[in-house]
Amino acid sequence: MDIYGNNLDLSPGTTNATVVATLQNRDVYIPTMEQVAQPFIVSSSPRVTGPAGLLIRFSGVPGRGYNLQVSSNLVTWSNLTTIVCTSKTTDIYDANFAQFQQRYYRIQAAPTPPNQLVTLGLPLRNTNGSFNLPISGSSNKTFVVQTSTDLTNWNPVCTNITTNGTLFIPCITNASNRQFYRLWFP
After folding, report:
1. Domain that holds residue 85
2. 170 in the same domain as 105
3. Cα dihedral 54, 59, 62, 63 sign
4. What is the pLDDT of residues 89-147, one digit of tens each?
5. Residue at 16 is within a domain
6. Is the domain of 89 the same as that of 127?
7. Are residues 91 and 132 both part of a single domain?
8. Are residues 128 and 174 in the same domain?
9. How would you classify residue 179: left for phi > 0, otherwise alpha for psi between -120 and 50, otherwise beta?
10. How far apart are CA 88 and CA 163, in angstroms?
11. 159 within a domain of the structure (yes/no)
């Protein structure tokens, strides 16, 4: 199976499958390429849920902020709410939906995460075979990029402070070992 566009073989018994299983057992969320690229409203929603209103369920990346937008004509859109995705799917209720003859919904990534998150993106392969790690953030948070070959022992690579935007940290790779990266906040 292809994951993240990097042609990783995740067949049972492979090293890649073991690493992914280890990370998932440690509650590390691994999004699919579809979730990284765009959030989407799940096909079984929206649906009326009684007095609570209309349930809109969307899929996104946990910890990232999203805007639920509404329109009555598919031309003019306004934000109904901004919400942080709490799991692979997140529910939003529109208690006022019945006040409108027709209402359309869409979900978009929020331009600035509502709780000032710092996120580690998917590695980007350079033409020379090296990698860059994209790190996004919008607040002045100090963080340390750490690396490990066994997910137990971690070593610092660099210390940075987030700004409004994305930093690209070059990865130093050792061809004989797999390397894992994480952000640590001192």
Report:
1. 33-109
2. no
3. negative
4. 888 888 888 888 888 999 988 875 444 566 777 677 677 766 777 777 666 677 788 88
5. no
6. no
7. no
8. yes
9. beta
10. 27
11. yes
Residue 147 lies in a domain: yes
DSSP string, the chain: ---TTTT----TTSHHHHHHHHHHHTT-----HHHHH--EE-TT-SEE-GGG-EEEEEE--TT-EEEEEEESSSSS-EEEEEEE--SSEEEEEETTGGGSS--EEEEEE-SS-TT--EEE---EE-TTS-EEEEEEESS--EEEEEEESSSSS-EEEEEEE--SEEEEEEE---TTS--EEEEE--
The model's pTM is 0.45
Same domain, 93 and 55: yes
Q: Rounded distance, CA 33 to CA 97, Å?
A: 32
